[in-house]
Design goal:
By secondary structure, the chain is mainly β. The protein has two helices and 13 strands.
């Protein structure tokens, strides 16, 4: 790794944590920095159709407000993201909150480091995951979350990816994850997967599969399932 890449990474990290840990970063104001080495992350409006779970969601820049309906469970999902980039390095700070009425919910606090080239992208993530089952009086479990993802572009409309995610056991002493949450695809799990993404104008089709592992109790066999979705930008 060259000295220039190391210098840019340290500079980006310092600037990122300065703005995210001051009143400017926490106030929710839009900060535009012209002619700067780093730029705020922006996303496009998109319509997401999760094929395997058959739910529909609407995404907006910097915040997501979604309503899912599946049998008798209603799901409210919210996410926020802040990121800064310099050259081919980007640092993300993500927060997601997902609550299923009558069942439970989880919250993610994840930092990610993304290193990209012309056709390849590596993303390394770490943070905390809080999960809770509403049917018990136990406090939410607190788990460490580690993840890695690799994307490779085959051409300007087709790419492949693979990823892995590991969740630790509950960090609280003498506490274990609820059996209702463990191996449940509606919650955060230790898993690995791969897939293919095809793009055409404002359409993005993600066809993939994933395997969930029982790293909490180590009693269940790995669970294989489809993990596909369709996104429509607008």
């Amino acid at each position: 790794m060259s000295k220039k890449v190391i210098y840019n990474s340290l500079l980006l990290t310092c600037l990122y944590y300065f703005f995210t840990n001051t009143s400017f970063g926490q106030s929710g104001l839009n900060i535009h920095l012209e002619n700067s080495l780093f730029t705020p992350y922006e996303t496009k409006n998109e319509l997401l159709l999760q094929l395997n779970n058959a739910h529909l969601s609407l995404s907006r820049p910097s915040s997501v407000s979604e309503v899912y309906k599946s049998t008798e469970i209603t799901n409210w999902h919210q996410s926020k993201e802040m990121a800064f980039s310099i050259n081919n390095i980007r640092i993300h700070r993500n927060y997601t909150s997902n609550h299923l009425i009558g069942l439970g919910g989880f919250e993610n606090y994840i930092d990610q480091l993304q290193i990209s080239s012309q056709n390849d992208s590596f993303i390394f993530g770490y943070g905390l995951t809080l999960q809770n089952n509403y049917n018990t009086s136990n406090a939410a479990s607190i788990q460490l979350n580690f993840s890695v993802r690799y994307d490779h572009s085959l051409n300007n409309w087709l790419s492949i990816y693979t990823y892995g995610q590991y969740l630790s056991s509950d960090l609280r002493k003498n506490s274990k994850l609820s059996p209702i949450i463990n191996m449940n695809p509606l919650f955060m799990q230790s898993e690995a997967g791969f897939g293919l993404i095809a793009k055409y104008r404002n359409l993005k089709l993600d066809v993939g599969t994933k395997t969930i592992f029982d790293t909490q109790f180590q009693k269940s066999k790995p669970l294989n399932m489809m993990n596909s979705k369709l996104k429509v930008g607008f």
